[in-house]
Design goal:
The complex is a heterotrimer of chains A (about 180), B (about 290) and C (about 210). Chain A has about 180 residues and is mainly alpha-helical. Helix content of chain A is about 50%, strand content about 10%. Chain C contains eight helices and four strands; from the N terminus they run αβααβαβαααβα. The chains are: A mainly alpha (about 180), B mainly alpha (about 290), C mainly alpha (about 210). Chain A: One of its GO terms (biological process) is mitotic DNA replication initiation.
């Protein structure tokens, strides 16, 4: 991951649902209520880079004397809901990952880091390997001179950006190899 | 940034007869030397080398260059420049070019047998030209690869301080240092004139590493590489000369390595091929006990 | 750019061929280069070094005697062959019989690869194209066997890709070209698996 990595930046700007732990004056525009405060317990979608900070930093004005609550509480976004995770577990290759998020793995890694979510990592591990086999099969079998996405059915349309890169790189490699083998 | 690589290479080609004044020591020998002592040291080293062993044969040098090239191509970091090897190689390219020139002009031929030897020399000439082109190809590709890393790690290389185990003058050749210096100046000028000067001063830094993601990108030493374990000195030395080699219960020789991040020990057997994190095999590669493939 | 983007991550098959071309192979020269004693006496004043090389051994070339086998770099053998100055002695494994034995081994051992030389695919391909008449068996049959071997091994490699992980892989007996072909896929996926597992690694260290 580098500072200028565009996929990393895009993944970080994905919006995730949050619940505010306290009322904040002037933030009402986040829930379409400009000019008003955002209320305690109201929900808003914030980009991950912002939500992450607000979920870590404690608000100074906490009503109870107990330990400081952070500004917001991160809620599990749809794409990591148990419904999606179950779908992944039952059939990783038939899942439309791209429609979940174009930066699914990137996002999942960030999410797993935030919550030290080993269960998520294990699901993702199996998913990545199984889908990668399929990506590899497509990368190998598609003729070198045809437009891949058009004729190979739907699987290739379900890839996230990481999988697309793997597909492109391996396809180039197999293609170069085939043309080398055919050389006289 | 339109720097023409061919100019740089042409310049390198022209300078091959002059021995690189900054060369200090070769490859895995990482002695740190002050720049004024360099000349002496080179002289001493060369004298010592001449006394202890014959200079490496062209084929030996070529094989070492091949290894250096293959390692460099597959390695995430920029490896130390083999100063002596490259000095010998570049000189050899020049000499061979002159030799081929002389042969093709017929300078070595007996006047009485012109026609016959001209024909007889045609085949060797053909081979010698192909041979030279092959050497030049490796040199070119090697330098290109290094320059692309110098570009990529421009800021990182600048931040490497002198405390590094391998000083910058050792890591890069004098030409590469000069290239790096000039490339960095041009890059900085470009960034300044296009973007940075329009930003508030506190947002102008391009080398702030304090944030959550450091701005300066260094090599990712943990990235995976394909590696073949060769044994000591690229398999040229007998295995029993290497104290770090161990033998397991089945009599197989291996190097024990440790994957820090996973707290996992792995036995890398001699002649084995592995996909491994680079930082795990970095020392083996630098000590010529394994080669990146 | 000083090096094309694709070449920053892998070798091209042509570069792999270049690497393999430096390996030795035996040839039958059709010419004699070594001078006879009498000739040498006549030219004693003059050193008649006819070959001087910088990447390969020159001695075998300067001592070539017609029909006496000698060993030279593969690229030299192919060049001499092209000039009609030698025939190439094919490596022992490049016969129908030997290749069939390798195929049998590959089929019998689904979890292993036979110990073909690191360069088998490149050498076979080069000799098929440039020295077909030197091979012991008809080239189209040999091609078929090589193709079979390649497909069987590729099938096994793809089976093995299920073993990708964040730690390491051991891939003994894979040839240099097979590795190169797989490189973008294997490294791409394993690097990502590594990132994935690193996301929860810190917690473990703390615990």
């Amino acid at each position: 991951m580098s500072y200028y990595d565009i996929d990393d930046i895009l993944a970080d700007s994905t919006k995730v649902p949050c619940k505010f732990n306290c009322s904040v004056p002037g933030l009402g525009y986040l829930e379409g209520n400009a000019g008003h405060p955002i209320k305690k317990d109201s929900k808003a979608e914030l980009p991950l880079w912002l939500a992450r900070i607000l979920a870590i930093i404690g608000a100074e004005t906490v009503e109870n004397e107990e330990e400081e609550l952070p500004f917001v509480e991160l809620m599990v976004p749809d794409l990591f809901s148990s419904r999606v995770l179950n779908a992944i577990k039952s059939s990783p290759t038939s899942l439309d990952v791209h429609s979940l998020s174009a930066h699914f793995y990137e996002l999942a890694i960030k999410w797993a880091t935030l919550f030290s979510d080993r269960r998520l990592v294990n699901v993702l591990n199996t998913m990545m390997i199984e889908r990668a086999q399929e990506v590899n099969n497509h990368a190998l079998s598609i003729p070198a001179d045809s437009a891949p996405a058009l004729q190979s059915g739907t699987f290739l349309l379900t890839l996230d950006e990481f999988e697309k890169r793997i597909f492109r790189d391996s396809h180039t490699s197999y293609k170069d190899m085939k043309s080398w083998m055919l050389r006289k | 940034m339109d720097i023409d690589i061919d100019d740089i290479l042409a310049e390198l080609d022209r300078d091959t007869t002059a021995v690189d004044q900054t060369l200090t020591s070769q490859g895995n020998d990482t002695t740190v030397v002050g720049s004024d002592a360099v000349g002496d040291l080179v002289a001493k080293q060369q004298a010592a080398a001449a006394q202890t062993a014959a200079p490496p044969s062209p084929v030996q040098d070529f094989n070492d260059l091949l290894v250096a090239w293959r390692n460099e191509r597959m390695c995430p970091e920029i490896l130390a420049y083999p100063h002596l090897l490259m000095a010998r190689t570049l000189r050899r390219v020049q000499q061979q070019m002159e030799h081929i020139e002389c042969v093709s002009m017929g300078f070595y031929e007996d006047e009485t047998r012109d026609a016959a030897s001209a024909v007889a020399n045609k085949l060797p000439l053909l081979c010698m030209e192909a041979d030279l082109e092959r050497l030049k190809f490796v040199v070119r590709s090697y330098i290109r690869c290094r320059l692309s890393k110098v570009d990529k790690f421009s800021l990182y290389l600048r931040q490497l301080d002198t405390q590094q185990p391998v000083p910058l003058t050792e890591l890069l050749s004098s030409k590469e240092l000069e290239y790096h210096e000039r490339h960095f100046t041009i890059l900085l000028k470009l960034l300044n004139s296009t973007i940075l000067k329009h930003m508030p001063p506190e947002l102008q830094a391009i080398d702030d590493n304090e944030g959550s993601v450091p701005m300066v990108e260094g090599p990712d030493l943990a990235s995976f590489v394909f590696v073949r374990v060769t044994g000591p000195d690229l398999g040229r030395s007998a295995p029993d000369t290497d104290p770090t080699l161990e033998i397991n219960d089945e009599g197989v020789r291996f190097y024990p390595v440790y994957i820090q991040e996973l707290r996992e020990e792995v036995e890398l057997t001699v002649d084995g091929i592995y996909v491994m994190r680079y930082n795990v095999v970095q020392e083996l590669v630098q000590a010529r006990k394994a080669i990146l493939i | 750019m000083s090096l094309p983007k694709t070449l920053q991550q892998t070798f091209s098959p042509e570069e792999i061929q270049f690497i393999v071309e430096n390996e030795p192979i035996r040839i039958f020269p059709r010419i004699t280069v070594r001078s006879t004693v009498r000739q040498r006496r006549q030219r004693s004043s003059q050193q008649q070094m006819r070959w001087r090389l910088v990447t390969a051994e020159e001695t075998p070339l300067n001592n070539m005697v017609a029909t006496q086998t000698t060993e030279v770099a593969l690229w030299l053998a192919l060049l001499l062959k092209q000039q009609g100055k030698c025939s190439i002695v094919p490596p022992v494994w490049l016969t129908l019989k030997q290749l069939q034995m390798y195929i049998d081994y590959e089929l019998k051992n689904p979890g292993r690869f036979s110990d073909l030389p690191m360069s088998w695919l490149v050498v076979a391909q080069l000799l098929f194209n440039r020295a077909a008449d030197d091979l012991q068996d008809p080239v189209h049959l040999l091609r078929g066997k090589i193709q079979d071997l390649r497909e069987i091994r590729q099938g096994k490699i793809f089976q093995g890709l299920k073993q990708l992980n964040e730690s390491h892989l051991q891939l003994d007996n894979l040839s240099i070209l097979e590795i190169n072909e797989l490189r973008p896929f294997v490294l791409g996926v394993m690097n990502k698996l590594k990132d994935l597992h690193a996301s929860v690694a810190d917690e473990e260290e703390g615990a």
